[in-house]
Structures are given as C-alpha cells and as structure tokens.
Write a structure and sequence with these properties.
Helices cover 77% and strands 0% of the residues. By secondary structure, the protein is an all-alpha fold.
Length: 209
C-alpha cells in the first residue's frame, strides 16, 4: 500500500471510529462503572475485534459468509442477540452493581479478560461491520502486491484508530461519571445504555444486507 493510499485509509478509519455505534456505548458504559483504567482492557478488545473482522475479510471468509444466506443469517442473529443480551443485563443490574460483570458476592467486579472479551465480541459479532468492511476495503487493495499483508496493515491501522478513539471516550465518560455515582443515577444510566443496546440489536436484526 502506497503512502498516499494509506493516508487516505487512515483518515477514513478515524471517521469510522468516531461514528456512533455499539463500541462507543460499550466504552461509555464500562468507563462509568469501572473507571477508564480498567476499561482500557475492553478498549483493547474493541480494537482486536476490528482487526479480526478485517482479517476475516482479507482471508475471504467474509465474502463466503455474505454469499451464504444461511451462514450469514446465523451470524447476524447471534450478533444481534448478543448486543440485546448486553442491554437486558444492564436492565437487570442492581443499582449498586456494574454493567459488564459481577463477582459471586454480587458486588461490582469483572476480570480484565472478561472486559477484553466483551469488547472483542461487540465488534466481531457486528454483521453490519462485516458487510461494511467487505465493500469498503477493496478499493484500497493493490492486487499486484500481497493482498493478505495489505489487509493486515489495514487491520492494524483501523485497530489503532479505534483504540485511540475509544480511549478518548472512556476518559470523557470518566470525567462525567463523578456526577453519576449515586445508586439512583447509576440505575438510570445503566437502563439508558441497556435500552440503546437493545435497540441496536433489534435494529441490526432488521438490517437488510
């Protein structure tokens, strides 16, 4: 990939990362409940999910899924159900609990791996993201060079911008969260985020690829 092509793609990645979606909601929710330091694990998971999604496209698996209606519908349903389940979890969370996970004693808590996994799956299971990357990345590929290496380069680039943007989102949420620490405010916030996740899941279910 030439420098000019890469710079164009780099600028596009910033636009994609800044556009509203499940990743931003997940980042806001985690930061308010855990603080930005612990939320970094989820942020790395989100970036890893973007990289994995682009690599899937580069390996041709994405095109196979898009061309196989049954397989794609299974993927789409699973991704939508996962996002909706996050929303349901938020609604069921007690006022003093946290969004993403709880320890056995019911107090707030989630391992760093659990946070990373949540972020990874949020981006990886987004069916609209798969179709988006399938249509978006092809113009940036030079068929005269190693296609897989170019997809890896694009995956790292997009993962980097996603990491930067989501880190910024968690920092902003951390600053705002000081006003949301009461049990009532936390319950209201979690239910707002929960509703958004459910609506995103339902919206993607109605999405026609």
């Amino acid at each position: 990939m030439s420098l000019e092509t890469w710079l164009s793609f780099f600028a596009l990645c910033w636009g994609m990362s800044l556009s509203p979606g499940p990743a931003q909601i997940a980042s806001l929710s985690a930061s308010i409940n855990y603080g930005w330091r612990r939320s970094i694990a989820q942020t790395f998971g989100l970036a890893s999910g973007v990289f994995a999604l682009i690599l899937i496209v580069g390996l041709g698996i994405g095109a196979l899924l898009a061309a196989a209606p049954v397989l794609f519908e299974i993927l789409r349903f699973g991704g939508c159900a996962y996002l909706a389940w996050i929303g349901i979890t938020l609604w069921r969370t007690q006022a003093r609990a946290v969004v993403i996970g709880k320890k056995a004693d019911g107090q707030p808590g989630a391992s760093l791996f659990a946070l990373w996994r949540r972020g990874f799956l949020v981006n990886l299971t987004n069916p609209k993201g798969l179709i988006f990357f399938l249509s978006l990345l092809t113009p940036f590929v030079n068929p005269a060079k190693s296609v897989l290496l170019q997809y890896i380069e694009m995956g790292l680039t997009c993962g980097f911008t996603d990491l930067c943007v989501m880190t910024g989102v968690t920092l902003v949420a951390e600053a705002l969260s000081k006003k949301l620490r009461s049990a009532r405010n936390m319950m209201i916030t979690n239910r707002i985020f929960g509703t958004v996740f459910i609506l995103i899941g339902l919206g993607l279910m109605a999405f026609d690829a």
